[in-house]
Design a protein that fits this description.
alpha+beta, two-stranded antiparallel sheet, two-stranded antiparallel ribbon
Length: 150
């Protein structure tokens, strides 16, 4: 009976106990160190630094590639004004909720070694064809790298 009870609690608590640090990879240890060193609570929300795989010396300036994707998206909108309205509504909702904001001209002109422009596009679920989801393409490559690679 005692063994059955132990087995029951082991099954019930599966996935809720902290895993041993021994099974973590070197990348996992580095990520945990970044989190531990940089976590803070701002305005009631937790925030941490980005989890770079390595110390980033610089990202290639990919604005031209992101603008090319934007031009493709604009051509798609010109062929389908309904799509544009739906897409704009989603982006406007992001702004209202504070997930996004329009940059000032000074901010838009600023460039640093970790500036990366995220291309985006609409995606629709076949089961919910009226609902547009904006997908940010962090896997988009430029000069052999992507934000996901970093």
């Amino acid at each position: 009976m005692s063994r059955q009870l132990e087995d029951f609690w082991r099954v019930e608590s599966y996935g809720t106990e902290k895993q041993s640090l021994k099974s973590m990879s070197v990348e996992d240890h580095n990520a945990m160190k970044i989190i531990d060193d940089n976590i803070s609570k701002v305005d009631g929300y937790y925030q941490i630094s980005l989890l770079w795989k390595e110390e980033v010396s610089g990202l290639p300036f990919n604005r031209a590639a992101a603008e090319a994707r934007l031009q493709y998206l604009k051509r798609r909108f010109s062929r389908d004004p309904g799509l544009e309205a739906t897409y704009r509504a989603v982006i406007d909702d992001y702004v209202i909720k504070g997930y996004a904001r329009k940059l000032t001209p000074e901010e838009a002109a600023k460039n640093s070694n970790i500036t990366w422009y995220l291309p985006h596009h609409p995606v629709f679920n076949v089961n919910k064809p009226q609902k547009c989801r904006v997908v940010f393409d962090a896997a988009a490559k430029f000069n052999g790298t992507s934000l996901n690679d970093q």
